[in-house]
Amino acid sequence: MATEETLVLVKPDGVARGLTGTILARVEAKGYSLVDLRLVEPDRERLEQHYAEHAGKPFYEPLLEFMMQGPSVAIRLAGERVIEGFRSLAGTTDPTTAAPGTIRGDFGRDWGLKVQQNLVHGSDSPESAARELQIWFG
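Above: the chain sequence. Below: its structure as tokens.
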């Protein structure tokens, strides 16, 4: 099987809580390779491109506002089945129900907000990874 690449974002809540290093340590312990890493203050245009499939949904505007609250860390990650593997490592989207041992299960909080502040994003398919890596890394 060929090595894949994926986009991982440590979202503003993860950066603000000082969890970037912990998240990176888990990724590296899993055996994935960091190809590129950037601290980014995303503007609305980049976020609109990234979340285009969600435009018009009730959570779209609050999500963009949340993602513009502070910096994110964009990570180009590589490895065998890295897309599937990182998503498993991240845990389910809802931090309250995410399994212990996952990033969201161990560190996520349910703030009772309309938008899940769930620490990380990981591409969900090879097609999404290619599109998202282009948006964040050019």
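The mean pLDDT is 94.
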